[in-house]
From TrEMBL:
Record region (Disordered): 322-341
Protein name per the record: 2567_t:CDS:1
Positions with a binding annotation for ATP: 50
Family named by the database record: Belongs to the protein kinase superfamily.
UniProt cross-references to PROSITE patterns, sorted A to Z: AGC_KINASE_CTER, PROTEIN_KINASE_ATP, PROTEIN_KINASE_DOM, PROTEIN_KINASE_ST
Domain Protein kinase: 21-279
Source species, domain of life: Eukaryota
Keyword tags: ATP-binding, Kinase, Nucleotide-binding, Serine/threonine-protein kinase, Transferase
GO biological process, one term: regulation of signal transduction
Species: Funneliformis geosporum
InterPro entries: AGC-kinase_C (IPR000961), Kinase-like_dom_sf (IPR011009), Prot_kinase_dom (IPR000719), Protein_kinase_ATP_BS (IPR017441), Ser/Thr_kinase_AS (IPR008271)
C-alpha cells in the first residue's frame, strides 16, 4: 500500500524509482543530462541525482561508457569517492543517485579565490588516497581534474565522474586517447599503451594548477598541445609568497615524464608520496577516514554551485523532470515487426541498466541472494554474516557458534562471495 507523501502516493516497498525522491535544485550539467539535489521522501536524506538521456546517449554512441560506469560504481565504496547509492530508469532517462557533496566542485572554488599550500596539500593527499583505492580495484580514472573533484560540506575532496574510467589488466595496456587533453599524460600520446600511471600525472597537473592558478600546458590547438605535453619544459613561475621547495618538488615528481621515476608509480609509489617532504607530516590513516579537519571549509551561507543550471531547467526545458516524476517506467519490449535500430538500443538499455539499491546490500546476510539487483557479483564491501561466524570461531566463542548452528547448516557447501566455504 502506498504511503501518502505530499502530492504523490509513494510505495517504498516497490523497486526504487523517481517518485521516491523529492526533486530540488539543479547543480550540474553533463553531455547527456544534468545533476540535481534530491531528497529521499521516506528518510529525508539528500543525494545527488544524475539523469542521463537515453536518446542523447544513443546519438553519441555512448551507451557502452554509461553501462561501464554504472557497473564500476557498484563495486566501489570509499570515503573519498562519490559512491553510487541507487540506479533505475524510465522511458527517457537512466538515473544514478550518488552521495551528495554540498561543497561544490573544486573548479568552482579555484575560480573564486587563491588557496594556501596547506589547503591544497590536504586535497591532493585525500585524492591520492582515493586514487590508490581505485588502482587497488583495477580501475584507472583517466579524467582527474578540478571539475571532477567534489567537496563535501566540511571541505573533504572526493573523486567523481567515472564516465571514461575503465578496468585495467596488468597484461593489457590501454591505448585510447581518453580524457581531458590538458590533463593527459605524455605516455598516452607517445604510443605503446599506458596504465594507471596516467592518474598520477593528472594529479600533478591539478596540483600545479591549484598552486599557480593555471595549467602547466595550455594551447588552443589540440595537436600542438599534445606535442607540448610530450616534450616541452615545464616552467615554474615566481609567486608572492614564493612556493615552497617541497611543493615544487612534489609537482615535479608527479609531472615526471619517465613513469619509472614518477611520484606515485611503481610498487612503492604511494609510500614514496607519504614520505615526500611535502606530505611527510600527514597522519594518513586519519586523513583517509576523514577524521582530520580540512583547512578550507566551504561556505554554508550560500550555494556552492553555478545558479545558471537551475535557471536553464526552469526556462529552457520543454518538459522539466519534475513534471514527469509520477510516471512509472513502461517496458519498451518490441512487438513483432518493430525491428528499428533505435528500439534495439532501448531494449539493450532495458536489459543492461539494472536497478541498484544500496540498502539491499547493507542488509545482505550472506545466505539471502540479492544478485538480481546487481550487475555483477555482489560488491566486495558487502560482508556476509558468515564472516562474523568465522571470526567468532577464531575468538573461541563456542557457545555463540552453537546457538547459530541452525544457520550454519543451511550454508553447508555454499561458496560465499568472499571466497570462504562453509
Amino acid at each position: 500500500m502506498g504511503v501518502a507523501n505530499g502530492k504523490y502516493d509513494v510505495d517504498f516497498t516497490e523497486e526504487v524509482n523517481l517518485s521516491h525522491f523529492k526533486l530540488l535544485r539543479v547543480v550540474g550539467r553533463g553531455a547527456f543530462g544534468k545533476v540535481r539535489i534530491v531528497e529521499r521522501r521516506d528518510n529525508k536524506r539528500l543525494f545527488a541525482l544524475k539523469y542521463i538521456s537515453k536518446e542523447e546517449c544513443i546519438k553519441m554512441d555512448a551507451l557502452r561508457n554509461i553501462f561501464r560506469e554504472r557497473s564500476m560504481l557498484e563495486e566501489l565504496d570509499h570515503p573519498l569517492v562519490c559512491n553510487l547509492r541507487f540506479a533505475f530508469q524510465d522511458d527517457e532517462y537512466m538515473y544514478m543517485v550518488m552521495d551528495l557533496m554540498m561543497g561544490g566542485d573544486l573548479r568552482f572554488h579555484l575560480n573564486r579565490k587563491t588557496f594556501t599550500e596547506d589547503a591544497i596539500r590536504f586535497w591532493i593527499a585525500e585524492l591520492a588516497c582515493a586514487i590508490r583505492y581505485l588502482h587497488s580495484k583495477g580501475v584507472v580514472h583517466r579524467d582527474i581534474k578540478p571539475d571532477n573533484v567534489l567537496l563535501d560540506d566540511q571541505g573533504h575532496a572526493h573523486i567523481t565522474d567515472f564516465n571514461i574510467a575503465t578496468h585495467i589488466r596488468p597484461d593489457k595496456l590501454l591505448t585510447s586517447h581518453s580524457g581531458t587533453c590538458a590533463y593527459m599524460a605524455p605516455e598516452v600520446f607517445r604510443g605503446g599503451g599506458y596504465g594507471i600511471t596516467v592518474d598520477w600525472w593528472s594529479l600533478g597537473v591539478m596540483l600545479y594548477e591549484c598552486i599557480y592558478g593555471k595549467r602547466p600546458f595550455d594551447c588552443d590547438n589540440q595537436d600542438e598541445l599534445k606535442k607540448i605535453i610530450v616534450k616541452a619544459p615545464i616552467k615554474y613561475p615566481d609567486m608572492d609568497p614564493p612556493v615552497s621547495p617541497a611543493c615544487v618538488s612534489a609537482i615535479q615528481g608527479f609531472l615526471e615524464r619517465d613513469i619509472n621515476r614518477r611520484l606515485g608509480c611503481g610498487p612503492n609509489g604511494f609510500a614514496l608520496i607519504q614520505s615526500h617532504p611535502f606530505f611527510r607530516n600527514i597522519d594518513w590513516p586519519s586523513l583517509e577516514s576523514k577524521r582530520l579537519n580540512p583547512i578550507f571549509k566551504p561556505s554554508s551561507d550560500r550555494i556552492n554551485f553555478d545558479a545558471t543550471y537551475d535557471l536553464e531547467e526552469l526556462l529552457l526545458e520543454e518538459q522539466p523532470l519534475d513534471e514527469r516524476q509520477n510516471r512509472r517506467r513502461k517496458s519498451r519490449r518490441r512487438k513483432d515487426g518493430e525491428g528499428s535500430e533505435k528500439e534495439a538500443y532501448y531494449q539493450l538499455i532495458e536489459e543492461k541498466f539494472k536497478p541498484f539499491d544500496y540498502t539491499v546490500f547493507e542488509k545482505y546476510e550472506g545466505w539471502v541472494d540479492p544478485v538480481t539487483r546487481c550487475v555483477a557479483d555482489p560488491p566486495e564491501w558487502v560482508k556476509p554474516a558468515a564472516v562474523e561466524v568465522l571470526n567468532q570461531k577464531e575468538r573461541g566463542s563456542q557457545d555463540e557458534i552453537g546457538a547459530n548452528s541452525g544457520d550454519l547448516s543451511n550454508l553447508a557447501g555454499i561458496s560465499l562471495d568472499n571466497g570462504i566455504k562453509i
